[in-house]
């Protein structure tokens, strides 16, 4: 119990910043909850008067006052309970929204290294389901737990006043109840944690399986995936069975204490005390009622600790995500005044300690309105340069300067407004063309959308469609060709008006005609922005002002295409099969 109490305090400290906004409501709810205790006590004493004075002594003249008292107390109790539910539910919902928003921001803003370490289905489960455990924690572990302990001591004191002998006998039974309750809590926590871990793995696997449906069919691995499905559910059923067994054990013990302890032992000893004139029938009945209330509160405390054991893994999983900083701090770059350069100074990088360096001693400078091409074979490190430029990773050696500022000092959100990216396979959603474009800038006007699409050479295609910009493009843009998706990606990037646009293998999977259209779009953009093209096709880099050749993590060549051709062995080897098809 001491350990669980410590966990209560620790978790309360973790969510205290969220609770600060609701201090007034919490104080009012606490007072409201405490006022319900004397109402319950008064109702039990009215019951004693009904037994002793009205039924035994036949004093019917006070029956009317007892009935009036019951009605008034019932009205007050209903009023307090209604207020508790209405205000409490509203407050808990707002609190959970605040925590869920914090988790969401932590997920979408966490470093890429951390992001890769989490299963995506598991993260979704933490946001959708696990966050709700904090509402249960605040309502039950804080309010109900504190109220239960106050009630236990209050009812215990009243029991000692009514009959100290019967009270001491009754108190002696309670430790056994707590010992068994704690044992069940520990086992149930263990079973719940195992179930949640396997469920998170299962959701991530299921998501990936559906996402790669075509690959599953093409590789004929339906049976393999079915076997995995069966294995997951066998594990889940087994763990769910364990949870049910501990729940049934708890229910069985509740029945044992209610029937054997409360009804048999108390009535038996109480009957003896009535026989010896140490107790009246009314006192025994009210003692039983008070003891039942005290025992119910003991049950509440025990069940709350069991519940804490069940919910603790879910809260721990949420707290693990909450540790990531969700605020974008640092220097905010002004897009309107961005006129300087991008510079890499002696940059070295490795993905994990002990592994070979991916980049070694990278030095390069890209001036304003310059068009740069970065080329290299697969695995040479060119995509890693992009990740460092976007702040997704931090270099272990050297520094990266944007507009003269070290990249780690620049506000992350500001950095991504300055730098736009067009990937090889741009993610598009089953929305209209316009809605897909508005994802980049929800405040873009129709005129701005049209201008961006004209610049990207896709406006004519869109306006020729029956529904124009309101055309649904299907799941993953199945209604668009590869080139059309790429040009849509370019238009989307342009809507944020970035000062730098990076094209990461944007034409590598396209046919010659589509590649020409993308190249025309890049030529149209290059007049006013820094353009960085990461490619391995020679045709994609002929218009670049400077070409940077990356080989084995180092810069093996730097200059215009005409300066490198025939004079740089790494450049020549990379494109030897392409020279014969291109006229210079």
From TrEMBL:
A cellular-component GO term for this protein: plasma membrane
Check the record and name the InterPro entries matching this protein: AAA+_ATPase, ABC1_TM_dom, ABC1_TM_sf, ABC_transporter-like_ATP-bd, ABC_transporter-like_CS, P-loop_NTPase, Type_1_exporter
**Principal location class:** membrane
Write down the Pfam families for this protein, in alphabetical order. Answer: ABC_membrane (PF00664), ABC_tran (PF00005)
Among SMART domains, the record links this protein to: AAA (SM00382)
Q: Which UniProt keywords apply?
A: ATP-binding, Cell membrane, Hydrolase, Membrane, Nucleotide-binding, Transmembrane, Transmembrane helix, Transport
Question: Which residue range or ranges hold the ABC transporter domain?
Answer: 342-577
For this UniProt entry, which segments traverse the membrane?
Answer: 26-47, 62-83, 142-162, 168-186, 266-287
Any keyword Transcription regulation? no
Q: Where in the cell is it found?
A: Cell membrane
An example of a GO molecular function for this protein is:
ABC-type oligopeptide transporter activity
Q: Does the keyword Ubl conjugation apply?
A: no
Annotated EC: 3.6.3.44
How does the protein's chain sit in the membrane according to the entry? Multi-pass membrane protein
Its name, as the record gives it, is: Xenobiotic-transporting ATPase
Q: Which organism is it from?
A: Pelosinus fermentans JBW45
Lineage of the species this protein comes from: Bacteria, Bacillati, Bacillota, Negativicutes, Selenomonadales
């Amino acid at each position: 119990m001491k350990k669980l109490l410590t966990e209560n305090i620790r978790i309360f400290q973790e969510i205290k910043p969220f609770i600060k906004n609701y201090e007034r409501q919490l104080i009012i709810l606490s007072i409201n909850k405490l006022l319900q205790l004397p109402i319950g006590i008064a109702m039990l004493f009215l019951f004693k008067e009904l037994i002793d004075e009205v039924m035994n002594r036949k004093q019917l003249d006070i029956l009317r006052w007892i009935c009036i008292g019951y009605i008034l107390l019932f009205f007050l109790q209903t009023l307090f309970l209604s207020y508790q539910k209405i205000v409490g539910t509203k407050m808990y919902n707002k609190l959970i929204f605040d925590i869920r928003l914090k988790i969401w921001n932590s997920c979408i803003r966490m470093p890429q290294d951390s992001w890769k370490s989490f299963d995506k289905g598991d993260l979704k489960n933490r946001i959708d389901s696990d966050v709700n455990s904090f509402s249960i924690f605040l309502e039950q572990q804080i309010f109900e737990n504190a109220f239960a302990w106050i009630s236990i001591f209050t009812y215990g004191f009243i029991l000692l006043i009514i009959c100290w002998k019967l009270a001491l006998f009754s108190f002696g039974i309670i430790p056994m109840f707590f010992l068994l309750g704690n044992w069940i809590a520990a086992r149930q926590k263990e079973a719940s944690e195992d179930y949640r871990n396997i469920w998170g793995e299962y959701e991530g696997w299921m998501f990936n399986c559906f996402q790669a449906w075509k690959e599953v069919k093409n590789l004929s691995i339906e049976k393999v995936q079915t076997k995995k499905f069966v294995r997951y559910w066998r594990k889940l059923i087994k763990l769910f069975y364990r949870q049910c067994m501990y729940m049934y054990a708890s229910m069985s013990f509740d029945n044992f204490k209610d029937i054997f302890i409360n009804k048999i032992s108390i009535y038996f000893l109480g009957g003896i005390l009535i026989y010896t004139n140490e107790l009246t029938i009314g006192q025994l009945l009210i003692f039983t009622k008070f003891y039942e209330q005290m025992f119910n509160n003991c049950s509440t405390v025990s069940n709350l600790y069991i519940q804490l054991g069940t919910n603790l893994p879910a809260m721990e999983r949420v707290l693990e995500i909450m540790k990531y900083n969700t605020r974008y701090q640092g220097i905010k770059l002004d897009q309107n005044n961005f006129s300087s350069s991008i510079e890499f100074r002696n940059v070295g990088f490795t993905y994990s300690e002990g592994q070979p360096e991916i980049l070694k001693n990278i030095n390069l400078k890209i001036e304003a309105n310059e068009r740069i091409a970065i080329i290299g074979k697969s695995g040479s490190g060119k995509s890693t340069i992009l990740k460092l430029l976007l702040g997704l990773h931090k270099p272990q050696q050297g520094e990266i300067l944007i507009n003269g500022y070290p990249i780690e000092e620049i506000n992350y959100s500001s950095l991504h407004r300055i730098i736009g990216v067009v990937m090889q396979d741009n993610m598009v959603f089953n929305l209209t063309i316009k809605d897909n474009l508005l994802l980049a800038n929800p405040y873009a006007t129709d005129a701005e959308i049209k201008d961006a699409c004209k610049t990207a050479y896709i406006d004519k295609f869109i306006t020729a469609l029956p529904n124009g910009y309101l055309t649904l493009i299907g799941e993953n843009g199945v209604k668009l060709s590869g080139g059309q998706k790429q040009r849509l990606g370019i238009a989307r990037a342009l809507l944020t008006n970035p000062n730098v646009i990076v094209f990461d293998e944007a034409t590598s999977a396209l046919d010659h005609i589509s590649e020409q259209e993308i190249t025309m779009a890049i030529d149209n953009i290059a007049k006013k922005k820094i353009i960085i093209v990461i490619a391995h096709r020679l045709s994609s880099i002929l218009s670049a002002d400077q070409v940077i050749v990356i080989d084995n993590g180092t810069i093996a060549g730097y200059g215009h295409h005409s300066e490198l051709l025939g004079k740089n062995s790494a450049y020549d080897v990379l494109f030897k099969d392409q020279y014969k098809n291109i006229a210079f």
